[in-house]
What does this fold into?
Amino acid sequence: MSIQNFQIIESTLREGEQFVNAFFTQAQKIEIASLLDAFGVEYLELTTPQASPQSELDCIAIAKLGLRAKIVTHTRCTLPDVRKAVETGVNGVDVVIGTSSQLREFSHGKSVPEIIELAQEVFEYLKSQNVEMRFSTEDSLRSDLQDLFAVYEAVDAIGINRVGIADTVGIGTPMQVYNLVSELRKRVKADIEFHGHNDTGCAIANAHAALEAGATHVDTSVLGIGERNGITSLGGLIARLYAIDSNLVKKYNLPLLVELDQRVAELVQVDVPFNNYITGFSAFTHKAGIHAKAILNNPSTYEVLCPEDFGLKRYINIAHRLTGWNAVRFRAEQLGLELSDDQIKHITGEIKMLADEHPLTLDDVDALLRNEYHPLEIEYSNPNEVA
It folds into this structure.
């Protein structure tokens, strides 16, 4: 199934708040919410107002901002939780309960029939409140399939807006996620949301598989922050979809990814990883000579993402032993230096020789190029010349 319409439920202000270094003030939450809204995500998911008095105040404040994104909050499957959520003025309530045998035994202690009965009670109340409704099964990938489908079909019959699959411990593979979403798509009319953790490095791939199988919504967070190793990264999902068809993500303000990643990284006191999707400092840096030559002829040879679409530029690194003379020539042209191919090849040899001895900088390379273009004028005296 081809990916067509999908929406992002951005959970930096819910899942992301569970990251070990996340201690957002209300002002910081409003700043993040405003940036994400400007980026164009369709939903902002907030921490349950039951978490603390401040969490409740934060929900109320963000719900009043008048953002284009729908504001939803994530709650347990209990009447007190959903009542308090509705009172904050959010647009929707995302209800969750664990369905795996581990969580049923060691968390809430309810059987599958009891879960269904509780969900029916909760959603009968929410239906009267004119809010969007989602029901998610926590730890879906370790739940019995028949239990899962029984719960999903029961809440779908109530008329909720979305059902959610949550790979809570990041155990799923893309094939497992694809098969589960495909089968669920046959059984329910509601939209399908996927929430994938990254404990085993599959969060982005699993989110993509879910969309291919018919999911309509994906949960993300900026830089993928969240509980433990976090969830599907906003930038990572954008990169994955852009690589399939850039039209899939043209509805988003892509250049804002840089500011989003840098600001959230600053707030949670981490660096943006060097290999981060799109915004890592080496994401569009080319070093090997064969790569550089091809990139200079046609960027698509070694770039599946176009940096200009994200407000960025590519960089050809030439100050090293792997450099090639085509890249050195390109640098000379950038500096406005007209050098012959023989001169460029000579300088390339010097760069390689010097780089074998010690690290070089771009300034070192530029100095070699300028010296070749403006050689030192040395006066030689002729011993045979008569004074």
Remarks:
- The chain has 14 helices and ten strands.
- The longest strand covers residues 70-76.
- Residues 274 and 369 are 29 Å apart (CA to CA).
- Strands lie at 7-10, 43-46, 70-76, 92-98, 132-138, 162-167, 191-196, 217-220, 285-286, 315-316.
